[in-house]
Amino acid sequence: MNPRARHPALLQRRGLLLIAGLSLLVLVAGLWGLSVGAVPIPVHVIVNTLFNLDGEQQSYIIMRSRLPRLVLALLAGGALALSGAIIQAVIRNPLASPNIIGINAGAALFALGMVVLFPAIPAEWMPLAACLGGITAASFVISVGHYRNLSAIHLALIGVAVGFVFEAGVDYLLITSSDSESSAPMVWLTGSLWGRTWGHVAIAWLPLMALGGLALVLSYRLDLIALGEGTATGLGLNVPRQRLLLLLVATLLASVSVAMVGVMGFIGLMAPHIARRLVGGSHRLMLPVAALVGMLLVVLADGIGRAIAPPIEVSAGILAALIGAPFFVYIMLTTDAESGP
């Protein structure tokens, strides 16, 4: 058989094995996450509880506290990773992510505004408010970038500036609200899964699963866009319309995640880059790998935050930022080096 014919099959097999391996890592990390906290729980007790087996169980702690936050960590991690991967591909900017181009800050401002200014509105409406904020921020950044024909670096800088504006609005709402009104939002905004319940899962799981599935279905269009607008148009793709659709999906994925778990900066930046290093640029493989990497990062960050100094919890978003900030500097330096003479 021709080696070139075998090459795609080998890459696909390698990608499937990697997906299986990452899935196993996510499972192990999830079990570990269920075991750590103010009350350490052995693995056999977790298994007994999850599968209702004979023996010691911890139904209240696991089923009502740790399992719903684990499910949300998986949903949010996968959604943020998919969002970052789509944004990087559509904008063709390795520095782009929901955090960098202001989507997270916009979603946080609108969601917090709903909580502080309209407390009577049910919590089920928070994802909608966050989506409006995320779309507002993304629309401004992308419009400026389109009409001014900005470079990748300048577009990222515009996004950072827009993010600062929305973050200033968040700070204003927190300062002007009473202590009782702002204490819970302050914890949430750091990217914390503290206090997450099955009610939050019920709100988030359907939109995030639907949007995530749509992102995976549209992955081949990202591969066509990567070929260049002329080539993609020649193959029958309406590039402007598809870019708009993909960016809308990415914005909604990030916004709903922010509404549920707060701002987890840099997950959407790190996960796609790690996935690209593992499987290359084919989005049919890269997107599911990125989603699994995002899940793994958030689950580990949440578990480590509870394991450092129990019963005190360090927010997963803080740990993600501590890892993501130097990672962002690394991307900046390597991008500059690759574009240099």
Write the layout of secondary structure elements.
Elements (H helix, E strand, L loop, with lengths): L2 H33 L7 H9 L7 H33 L11 H15 L8 H23 L3 H25 L2 H11 L8 H20 L1 H8 L2 H6 L4 H23 L5 H13 L3 H25 L8 H24 L2
Q: Describe it for me?
A:
The protein is mainly α. The chain has one domain (68-339): ABC transporter involved in vitamin B12 uptake, BtuC. The protein contains 14 helices and no strands. α3 runs antiparallel to α11, α4 (103-117) runs antiparallel to α7 and α13 crosses α14 (316-339). The longest helix is centred in the N-terminal third of the chain and has 33 residues, at 3-35.
| CATH class category name | Mainly Alpha
What percent of the residues sit in helical stretches (DSSP H or I)? over 70%
In CATH terms, the superfamily is ABC transporter involved in vitamin B12 uptake, BtuC
Order of helices and strands: HHHHHHHHHHHHHH
- Count helical runs: 14
Structural class: mainly alpha
CA(first)-CA(last) distance: 41 Å
The count of strands amounts to 0
How many distinct domains?
1
Provide the β-strand percentage band. Answer: under 5%
**Inertia-based shape:** globular
